[in-house]
Amino acid sequence: MLRRGLSIVALLLVCVLPARAAVTIDFYSHKLAMAPGLNTYFPHGFVLLSGTTTDGAPVKANLGFTAKNIFINVLWQRIEGELDPTPLPDGYVDGAVHHFSFPLTDAQYRAVLAVADKWRSTPQPSYDIDEHNCVLFVKDLAAAVGLSVSDDKKFIHAPGDFLDDVAVRNAAFLAANGTVYRAGTPAAQTNANALELRVKQLERDARQKAAN
Question: Which of 5, 123, 130, 158 is the most exposed place for a label (fewest CB within 10 A)?
Fold first, then answer.
């Protein structure tokens, strides 16, 4: 009788209490590459946000920081900067390297948005190749959600190396949140590996259930 009563209470709580935010953050880097139309993709770090907020609003966004127009003067002076366009160009994410991902708490999600707002509102010219670039933007995001990050200047122009270092520094946290870290793995291969692992897990569960 007590067990039945507890089940009813639990069901009522599920119906009454609001769902927690389930937004996932994915960290990516892109290497120097030629894009369609002879355009150039420069090394870049960015994140993707996906899922649902506490109030049920869907989230599908990309966040990165870049120079609005890159010319040779970027090497010696600040130029106009902006957050990455939304959506990103077709195929851009497929050609990027997926480093790691994990679900955000409500507080972490708000912290990510606060970082984006801060960088968006920085007085122009806001892009500096050495002091205010995409790596430092991603570093701000990572620090805002509680990840350990490096201050080593060797990463300032190397978003992929920087995120590899973040992954190593936070390996225990990422493992606890379901991320299997593989340095420099293309996004498509990471997704394929994740699917393979999930299939094997389901097979093990099925065999264990049959044995019982």
Answer: 123
